[in-house]
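[Discussion] Sanity-checking designs against the backbone

I'm trying to build intuition for which residues belong where. Below is a structure token string of 97 positions. I'd appreciate it if someone posts a full sequence so I can compare it with mine line by line.
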């Protein structure tokens, strides 16, 4: 598996819009190879969020990252943020449920 972790700062008052954006995104299109998406709000700072997206493979992740649909969704996300997310991509080396 492969994925990304994004550190984001939400604009004040945009919290509900972020959650609506995330739910809409997951319901509006099927992303090939997508396994899980998690969104965290930090206890220490309610404007700091982390998004975790996990894919079946690096190839599936890269194909999504390079798709026009993902680019359009990313531009919508940027309008809710104070600035660009800080991205950390990598291979999932362990997972448990």
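Best answer:
Here's mine. Compare freely.
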């Amino acid at each position: 598996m492969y994925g990304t972790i994004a550190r984001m700062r939400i604009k004040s008052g945009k919290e509900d819009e972020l959650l609506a954006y995330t739910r809409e995104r997951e319901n509006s299109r099927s992303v090939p190879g997508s396994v899980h998406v998690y969104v965290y709000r930090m206890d220490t700072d309610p404007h700091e969020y982390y998004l975790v997206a996990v894919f079946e493979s690096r190839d599936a992740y890269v194909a999504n990252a390079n798709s026009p649909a993902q680019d359009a969704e990313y531009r919508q996300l940027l309008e809710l943020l104070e600035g660009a997310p800080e991205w950390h991509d990598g291979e999932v080396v362990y997972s448990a449920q």
